[in-house]
Amino acid sequence: MKVAVAHEAGRPVVVEDLPVPDVGPRDVLVRVTASGICHTDLNVIGGRSALPLPIVPGHEGCGIVEETGPEVRRVRAGDRVLASVSPACGHCGRCVGGMSNHCELNPVVKAAPRFELDGGRWAAALCGCGTFAEAMVVHEASVVPVETDLADEELALLGCGVTTGVGAVLNTAGVVPGSSVAVIGCGGVGQSVVQGARIAGAALIIAVDPVPGRRESSVRAGATHTVDPAAGDPVGQVRELTGGQGADYTFEVVGRPELMVQAFDMARVQGAVTLVGMPEAGANLTLPAVQAVFSGKRLAGSVVGGAQILRDFPRFIRLAEAGRLDLGSMVSRRIGLDQVNDGLDLTARAEGVRTVIV
Asked: What CA–CA distance (Å, rounded) separates 341 from 335?
């Protein structure tokens, strides 16, 4: 089968023919039908994460189950499944405690060598998935069976970007109707935050991004106002749009510490600041201590949007089927696996919202 492998940091991935991985007792063989390209893939391929190479990128995908191990109970052959960026076993202490986005299986699932390379070497699969391939073998905790007529290219986006963004609004921040929201970074995840704010009933949704096309698409997604950081201090612009008070809820969706500080400064007194973007390994965030204490602002990290995938995948699918969550408009390009490096380049240049491998 064809698989895209990242061998060296900063170098193009290589599409090569590899054997289909063996299926273990709790593993599932999935024929991949669609995979989104996420900015996290760029960080990993570029060596800006803590994950070692070689690795098979891709963690946002869907497909059809072709084979299951003898101990698998969640799915069976023929099921249509949505892969998850974070596994959820459903029965460990964290899963039972409503923190399945921090499932205790995470380190084991994500570190497992999945793809055998030439010379007896092995490559892991990003987030335990490795969706940049014609097929993948994953732990059953990393897939959820779904029944929907959504197109593969739309369904795949729920595996990471859309769930992370919408979940950050509904689960982590708890945005309420009539509130004001500012979103820094309006790529695929940022657009999902905008949509989540619209779904939650926010009255004022401010999209902050230097790319004109992304500001325009944010308006179509539900933003009421846009801010161009190149046109002046973005914090000042957001404060002006909110009557000098700052936004009730702010989201940083890029992963850069200086933008996290901006998100903090954009929030009103006792506002909620949610950090969604993936920072580079070793990056540090510094805030003024007095302001951090006396402003009463709440600062929260959002891992996979705080999603409980067994609950949230089905409910986000229902939102999409009802027309309240627009997945189709987020698909900017459709490419084949052999064009994966072109897709990665588009993502690096911030062209479009989401490129999907189909």
From this structure: 10
Measured CA to CA, the distance from residue 45 to residue 51 in angstroms comes to 9
CA–CA distance, 60 with 34 (Å, rounded to integer): 8
Supply the DSSP symbol for 251. E
> What count of other Cβ atoms lies within 10 Å of the Cβ of residue 346?
18
Residues 6+ apart with CB under 8 A from 99: none
The model's pLDDT over 253-312, given as tens digits with 9 standing for 90+, comes to: 999 999 999 999 999 999 999 999 989 888 999 999 999 999 999 999 999 999 999 999
Pinpoint the alpha helices (H) of 112-158. Answer: 152-155
Tokens 């460990």, located at residue: 92
- Going by C-beta distance under 8 Å and a sequence separation of 6 or more, which residues neighbour residue 318? none
297 Cβ contact partners less than 8 Å away, ≥ 6 residues apart? 264, 267, 269, 270, 271, 272, 273
8-state DSSP, 97:
T
Between vectors from CA 58 to CA 223 and to CA 307, what angle results, nearest 5°? 55
